[in-house]
Amino acid sequence: MPExxxxxxxxxxxLELSNLDKVLYPAAxxxxxxxxxxxxxxxxxxxxxxxxxxLTRIRYPNGVDGQHFFEKNAxxxxxxxxxxxxxxxxxxxxxxxxxxxxxxxDLPTLVWLANLAALELHTPQWRIGEHPDLLVVxxxxxxxxxxxxCCEVALLIRxxxxxxxxxCYPKTSGKKGMQLCCPVAATQPADQISGYARKVAGELAxxxxxxxxxxxxxxxxxxxxxxxxxxxxxxxxxxSPYSLRAxxxxxxxTPLTWEEVEAGAAGxxxxxxxxxxxxxxxxxxxxxxxxxxxxxxxxxxxxx
Length: 304
Prior knowledge:
Layout: E1 5-10, E2 13-18, E3 23-25, E4 30-31, H1 32-50, E5 56-59, E6 69-71, E7 83-88, E8 98-103, H2 107-115, E9 118-123, E10 134-141, H3 147-162, E11 169-172, E12 178-183, H4 190-207, E13 212-213, E14 225-228, E15 238-239, E16 244-245, E17 251-252, H5 258-265, H6 277-287
Parallel strand pairs: 13-14
Antiparallel strand pairs: 1-2, 3-4, 5-6, 5-9, 7-8, 9-15, 10-12, 10-14, 11-12, 16-17
Helix pairs in contact: 1-2, 1-6, 3-5
């Protein structure tokens, strides 16, 4: 075996890991071995959120400064023990009507993906064969707006959704914005969830037109927070909680407490910011999984 490859056994499955010293985040010197180590250690809280969901990966074989590609279909050489699900793939760039999606239900699959430099993990708002069980709102700030403004808007959305009996949970995107996630009942089709999210976004944009937009046109975004309600489209995916992001210094899509969001809205420096993988592991040790409640069914969204 070449010196840059090692064999490991993970929960009964044999894997061959390669190029562990390869730097995938050059600005930080963060290696593939460290990526695999992070995903291995965060797996207990990450896996429940991606189990039974078709996984889209963004792979960076030459690091975050190199070429990357989105991957939905299972790659050549996929081990026979990796769970695959053949599902419709609307809008697939391959021209195929169906693809064989990887489903990461266990640690060996997660380690295998990390070894392929699948830095980012994205999932839809539904579990395979079911209606959506999550409502997701993406908060995208247009410069000079930033995370502070996202926190301010997050609090407005939290209170608005609470009025309809929905509880939402905040996380950083791992880049410049945030996402709010609400558990829903998994009894309504995606267009109803998306329609409700669009309605709420429009209401808030009308109430605070100087700071919020619910329209996708980028020319309308400078200085405002775009409430992207379209994440609830059945064909859309959202970065998974605890996933790494492909930014110069490794950062993670990190679940937050509402106290942190309130502090961020008040301008407290560092309350809400991109958190690194080491910090996230410390947060998990301190808080556990702040998104654990998303694993339980929520209420239906209003339809009128």
